[in-house]
User: What shape does this take?
Amino acid sequence: MKYFVLFGPPGAGKGTQAGAMVERYNLCHLSTGELLRAEIAAGTPLGLQAKSLIEAGNLVPDSVVEGMIEAKFRDTKGVDGFLLDGFPRTIAQAQALDSMLSKSSESVTGCVSIMIPDSLIQERIAHRANIEGRADDARPEVVENRIRTYHAKTEPLIDFYRKADKYYEIDGTGTIEEVRKRIFTAMDKL
Ligand code: ATP
Ligand code: MG
Assistant: This one.
């Protein structure tokens, strides 16, 4: 099995690019953001716990997302691998992922990182707020907190995967097609 980490700041276009990636490489798309929003919509206890954190632009506890991911690894059949979108988001989550995979003598195949500047993050999320109606996209101060959280807690993963020689950075600026081609060029070799 292949395990790809799809990395990038909020609004980088991870969700947008994920569809083409799962199709080309027969992967299961696991977006922790989408899984959490489904829990909120279903009104589960987990969703209730996550809602206020997400709407303030904070991360949910590591144990919550780690549990969701491990359950999906166990229950998903018939794919050649997984595309992890929005996970890991902290060093602790990355270490938890490594230990989950090492139980079956597996490891992360590569971290595909879609990079855009902070100025473009704001612009893209403001645009998406009008289309998708996500509560965490609507308020500029929440978006700013997500960007801060990204720099403080998530960005250190770049070094984590670089040191493991698994970091592949993609220029996330330009059209959706341009970015997709760059991703395929990198992933075809992995
Ligand atoms: P993108 O626009 O690239 O899809 P995003 O940051 O806008 O990324 P999601 O990945 O959908 O949005 O995540 C939404 C929220 O869900 C996060 O701000 C965070 O509160 C929570 N969340 C998602 N994944 C994790 C995670 N791995 N650990 C902790 N919290 C998470
Ligand atoms: Mg997303």
